Amino acid sequence: MTTSLASLTRPQKAAAILVAMGKPSASRLLKFFKQEELKALIEGARLLRTIPQADLERIVAEFEAEFTEGAGLLDSADKMDTILNESLSAEEMNALMGNGEPLAIKDNLPPVWPQIERLEATQIGAFLANEHPQTAAMILSNLAPTYAARVVLSLDKPQRSEIIKRMMELANVPEAATKLVEQQLRSQVLTESAQKDTSAGQTRVASVLNELDKSQLEEVMSDLREVGMADLDAIRARLFSFEDIPSMAQKARVALFDGLSTELITMALRGTALPLAEAVLSSIGARSRRMIESELSQGSEGIQPADILRARKTIASTALRMANEGLLELPSAQNAA
C-alpha cells in the first residue's frame, strides 16, 4: 500500500526524507530538532506506507533549502523507529512519546560562555577581530554585559561600530548555529588558552601574596622584580588589600560594602587612619555610618589585633571575588586600562 503525496503532512514529509537519507546522516540531524518536533516526526512516521520514488523526489525538492541531498526508495514506521532508537536513549524516547517526564536532549559538555568569561577580554577581542562581524555580534550577545563591554573596548573603532550595529539587529539565532559557534570557541579559544594561558598560575601566586600585609607584600614584590620574574604586572593586577580601598572608584566601594555587615566593617575600621576610614564610611548608608561611628568612639579595648586583621582580609577577599565575577573594578585594573 502506498501513501498519496497530497495527503502527507509536513512532519510526514520530513520523516520520509530522514529515512531516505539513511541512519548515519539522519542520526546526526535528529540532535538539532526540538522535543515537540521529534514527537511530531515519530507520530507522522507511524502513519506512513510505501512512498514511490517520484513522489519522494518531489518531497526532497520542497525541502531543498534545508536538505541538499536525499535519495531513497521506501519508507516505514519501523525504519524511523530504528533511527530514533539508535540516536536517542530510552529515557529520551519515553519522554518524547509522552511515556515519562519531559527530558531535554543535550550534550554533556559544560557551558562554554562562563569559561570564555574567565579569559582576558583582550584575548577574546583578538579572536573576534578575525571573525565575521555577524559571528562576533552573536558571541558578544551571549556574554555577560560587563565582560562583553571590556571586549568591545579592546576592538578597533571601525570594527567595534560594525559589531555593535549587528548586535542591535541580531534576531534569534538557530540552535544549530549556536552549537557550531560554541564548538569553534572550544576548539580555537579554550583549547589554545589552556595550552598557553598562565593566568591560573598568576592567580595562585596572587592568592598567596594577598595574605601578606602591605609592607611584607612590597618587600616580596621587590624581590621578585630583582630576580626578573615574568608577568609581574599581571600578578600585581590581581593584588588587593584593605588599604587599597581609597583608590577604588566610589561606585565600586558602594557595591563592595552594600552586602557587608556593620559588625565586620566596624571591626575592620578599628585603628585605621582617617582617609581610609572616611573612604569606607562614605560608601555606606547614613544610618549604618552613625552606628559604626558610635561603636568606634567607644575605643578598641579588649579587641584582638588578629580579629581586626581577619576582618580586613575578609573584605579584601570579597572585593577580589566580586572583581572576578565582574561586579566591580579594582583600582589595579583601572590603572592598567
From TrEMBL:
Instruction: Tell me which InterPro entries the record gives.
Output: Flg_Motor_Flig, Flg_Motor_Flig_C, FliG_a-hlx, FliG_M, FliG_N
- The Flagellar motor switch protein FliG middle domain sits at 122-195
In this protein, which residues make up the domain named Flagellar motor switch protein FliG C-terminal?
Answer: 232-330
Q: Does the keyword Metal-binding apply?
A: no
Pfam families per the record? FliG_C, FliG_M, FliG_N
Which residue numbers delimit the Flagellar motor switch protein FliG N-terminal domain? 8-98
Indicate how the chain sits in the lipid bilayer.
Answer: Peripheral membrane protein
Q: Which family does it belong to?
A: Belongs to the FliG family.
Reply yes or no: does the keyword Cell membrane apply: yes
Keywords of this entry: Bacterial flagellum, Cell membrane, Cell projection, Chemotaxis, Cilium, Flagellar rotation, Flagellum, Membrane
Which stretch is the leader sequence? none
The record's subcellular locations are: Bacterial flagellum basal body; Cell membrane
Q: What is its main location?
A: other
Q: Which gene codes for it?
A: fliG
Organism of this sequence: Aminobacter carboxidus
Return the protein name.
Answer: Flagellar motor switch protein FliG
The protein's job, in short, is:
FliG is one of three proteins (FliG, FliN, FliM) that forms the rotor-mounted switch complex (C ring), located at the base of the basal body. This complex interacts with the CheY and CheZ chemotaxis proteins, in addition to contacting components of the motor that determine the direction of flagellar rotation.
